[in-house]
Structures are given as C-alpha cells and as structure tokens.
Amino acid sequence: MSILAENGLELQISERDSRLIEEGVGKVFERLIRALNQTQPTQTLGQTFALQSLPSVSPQDFLRRFTLLGEISAPMLLGALMLTDRALKTGLFLSSLCLHQLFAANLFIITKIHSEHGSYTPKDFGALAGILPTTLQTLELALLSQDVNIRLSITQDEYSQYKDRVLSLAD
C-alpha cells in the first residue's frame, strides 16, 4: 500500500494547484525554520539530523530542486511535509538545523514507496538533497525506527486538510 494511497487517495491535481502546493510547502518550511531557529537539538536523534548551519539555499529553491531536477510531484512534497510534521510533534527534532535533512529523509521514504519513476538510489537522492548517501540511509533508518514511531500512512481526509491549509498559505 502506498503511503499516499491509503483508501484510494487521489493524487491528480491541476498544474496551478501543483505550483501553489509547492509555494505553500515552501512557506510552511520558512515558518518552521523561523519558529525553530532559536533552538538546538538536545536529543541524540535530533543531533543525528542536525546540520552545522542552515543551508544557504532558500526553502523555495530547496523544494524546487526536488520538483525540477528530481521530477518529484507536489503531492509527494505535501506527503513529506505531513510526515515531517508528525516527526516534529515527537519532540525529537526541535531545531531548525534538523529541518532540511528531516524533510529530505521523509521525502526519500515517500518516493521509495510512491514514485511513478521507481525509487531513487540513496546516491541519486542524496545528490538532489545535498546529503551524503550514507547519511541519507542513516536518517531513513532513524525515521523508520521505533524511537521515532510515526505513522506513515496518510488518509484522504488528512491529505485534503493539509492540502487545503497549504493552498491557503499560497494565495
């Protein structure tokens, strides 16, 4: 069962909505960075995901790299945001230094399970995300471990609610 297709989740969206979702996810990303900017990861797991400093690329450009170069769809970005939100709620990743790698690892998991183009290798996806393949695999395993224990499935209602919230930010 696909992460994004539990209960027949519909992923067909218009090109306009696709652009707006990408823009909205970028705005959420920016807000998260600002909100978490003053914190340092204190948990060992959070430190695994932490960068030394925030990437110089903007959140919009970070996401655009995935959609343009990786041909990753807006629904996958939205799914990765949903999983990132769930991971943040565990309290293990409360730092802006964790956000890029946490999002990228969640997106890697989504693309492995729900990609029209087949799954990316850690090397290829790591290059897209700016993460070493071995680090990406460590991050993926950390997210799938029982220490994090987030639910990976996404229902139609959850997807629709997130989509509506993200689209409202892009207007």
Commentary on this structure:
The chain is an all-alpha fold. Helix content is 63%, strand content 0%. The protein contains 8 helices and no strands. Helix 1 packs antiparallel against helix 3, helix 1 crosses helix 8 and helix 6 crosses helix 7. The radius of gyration is 15 Å and the shape is globular. The N terminus is likely disordered.
Descriptors:
171 residues; mainly alpha; 8 helices; 63% helix; globular
Strand content: under 5%
Average per-residue pLDDT, rounded, comes to 78
Characterize the overall form.
globular
- Indicate the structural class: mainly alpha
- Radius of gyration from CA coordinates: 15 Å
Helix content: 55-70%
Overall number of strands: 0
**Could you give a short account of the major beta sheet?**
none
Distance between the termini: 33 Å
| Low-pLDDT residue spans | 1-8
State the order of secondary-structure elements, H for helix, E for strand.
HHHHHHHH
- DSSP helix count? 8
How do the strands and helices of this protein lay out in sequence?
Blueprint: H1 15-36, H2 44-49, H3 59-69, H4 74-88, H5 96-113, H6 122-129, H7 133-144, H8 156-170
Helix pairs in contact: 1-3, 1-4, 1-8, 4-5, 4-8, 5-7, 6-7
